Amino acid sequence: MAKPGDTHYIISIDTIIKNCLSLIFSSGKVVSCNAIKLNRDENYLIEDENSGDLIAKIEAKIEERKRGSSTRFLYDSNMDAETLSVCKKTFRLKKDEMIKGGSHHNFYDLFKFPNPVKPNLQGENYPSLKHLPFESKKSIFEVIDKKNQLLHFPYQSYYYVLQFFNQAAINRNVLEIKITLYRISSQSLIANALISAAKNGKKVTVFVEVKARFDEYNNLFWSREMKNAGIKIIQSMPNLKVHAKVAMVTMKDKYGNKKYYNYLSTGNFNESTANIYSDFGFFTSEKKYTDDLKKVFAFLKTKKKANAPKHILAAGFNMKEKLIELIDTEIKNKKAGREATVFLKVNGVDEKDIIDKLIEASRAGVEVTLIVRGICTLLPGIKYATENIKIYRIVDMFLEHSRIYKFANNGEEKIYLSSADMLSRNLNRRIEVAYPLYDEKHIEEINTIIQLQLEDNTKRRIINSEGNNEMEILNIDEPRRAQTEIYDWLAECNVE
Fold it and tell me: What is the b/e burial string over 152-181, where b = at least 16 CB atoms within 10 angstroms of the residue's CB?
């Protein structure tokens, strides 16, 4: 064990590798060693999803990934010309596929490395906060019965979601559990809770999206495990992905009547990513949410659409049309001299009809504000087109993954939390859910988070009319960082 005053030696990875290679090739001399990384085309297209065994087709396509065409060959800038030529010939590379890089390319591996100089090179620790209503001695269902509950991940603990399913698995009054799974952890505690529920005699139905890119094997594995435990598994729908993150627990009350408890989220049922993805989770037993979710689950089971949901927005039913209608309302309100604004926080924007409607709103004078983490094909600040549109981006220690849709609605705000981005794939080729907030406290919480993010002058960037990221100078003497302030604000709420 190192003690104060001990001498510390830092040896480069190159040196370690060279020494190891010298041991392996003891009869020769190791002149050099270089790291390379070969990326292959891992996209796949299933031309006909409506006939044959879709799962078998997916498994075959996954195997083809290993032989996909080369798309990028990243190599050490110190690599000699002869070795580079051998690599080019061996991997059948084109010149524009070969990119000069540094000494190490797979930086994800470094997450597993210990930090020998703690606490240096290490950010501040933000342990998950409690959600006080769930800390009572009552069951999680009693708390939800009393009031809807909104959670903020990863600031607050994801344990309560696990508790929801674990308590459902052992509660003798629970009759049924339904859930959609898009990406789950490789060591999924939620999947294990569902298996326990099935073994305890509960009826469990799980829709597993086996076309979730790069998680196909993991989802197929858990499909088999859950099916073997007696769970009814519904797998991928042809030509459609189910990206919604929803669950419903059916329970009988003391009179024998059915009672429903729902969980709706902006993020996946994945306890691993819940520690680093910024998302919302919403628990409710209110009838208006239950009735709408029943329609979504019925469609997943029967492939037949009933009437569109009345309160939630559901892509595949009414989401795109309702979003355009909501923006139209803001345009009408602005023209009538009433309060009108649109705020969207999403991971991507490229849906043409939505973009056209936002441009129309901008031309009508509606103030449109977007926070977009990823791709955005809408350019702000263009005269006579998008001059009333502002677009920001926040990249920080937690991945901004939640989606928020907010409309001024002449002073009677409408706020939705969702799993859907403003992308063509989400609104036209997926089943998504956006759920409205009606509780004043929850609306205040979302507005606080929005305000903190718009006041961030540390990690927030503004997108200019050319699509470039720029630092916006706002009270630079007072550094503001949204994610740390959200954490501190939620911690203070626990004290009040």
Answer: bbbbbbbbbbbebbbbbbebeebebbbbbb
* Coil vs helix vs strand at 241: strand
What are the C-alpha distances in Å from 355 to residues 14, 45, 60, 217, 380? 49, 27, 37, 35, 11
Q: Please give the mean pLDDT across all residues of the chain.
A: 89
pLDDT, tens digit (0-9, with 9 covering 90-100), for 176-200: 999 999 888 888 999 999 999 999 9
Q: How far from the centroid of its chain's Cα atoms is residue 22's Cα? A: 45
Q: Which one of 202-211, 254-263, 466-475 scores highest in mean pLDDT?
A: 254-263
The helix/strand/coil state of 30 is coil
Q: How far apart are CA 123 and CA 165, in angstroms?
A: 33
Residues 158, 129: Cα–Cα separation, whole Å: 10
- From the list 254, 292, 259, 245, the residue with the least C-alpha distance to 141 is 259
In which region does residue 411 sit, left (phi positive, over 0), alpha (psi from -120 to 50) or beta (all else)? left
In the residue annotation, 131 being an active-site residue is answered as no
In DSSP terms, 405 is beta-bridged to: 344, 416
CA 203 to the chain's CA centroid: 28
Q: What is the largest CA-CA distance in the chain?
A: 86
The closest alpha carbon to 273, from 392, 207, 202, 182, belongs to 182
- Measured torsion, CA atoms of residues 209, 212, 216, 218, in degrees rounded to the nearest 10: -80
Structure-token pair, residue 142? 């009693």
Cβ-proximal residues to 370 (8 Å cutoff; 6+ apart), any chain:
343, 344, 345, 346, 349, 376, 378, 380, 389, 390, 391, 392
DSSP, res 478: S
- For 149, the token pair is 């509950």
CA 324/CA 311 separation, integer angstroms: 16
User: Residue 120 CB: number of other CB atoms within 10 A?
Assistant: 7
Candidate from 116-130, 424-438, 448-462, 467-481 with smallest mean pLDDT: 467-481
What's the Cα-to-Cα distance from 153 to each of 128, 156, 161, 274, 427, rounded to whole Å? 8, 5, 11, 6, 25
Say which of 104, 131, 152, 243 is annotated catalytic. 243
State the amino acid at position 214 in one-letter form.
F
- Read off the amino acid at residue 29: K
The C-alpha atoms of residue 227 and residue 229 are separated, in whole angstroms, by 5
Cα–Cα distance, 437 to 403 (Å, whole number): 13
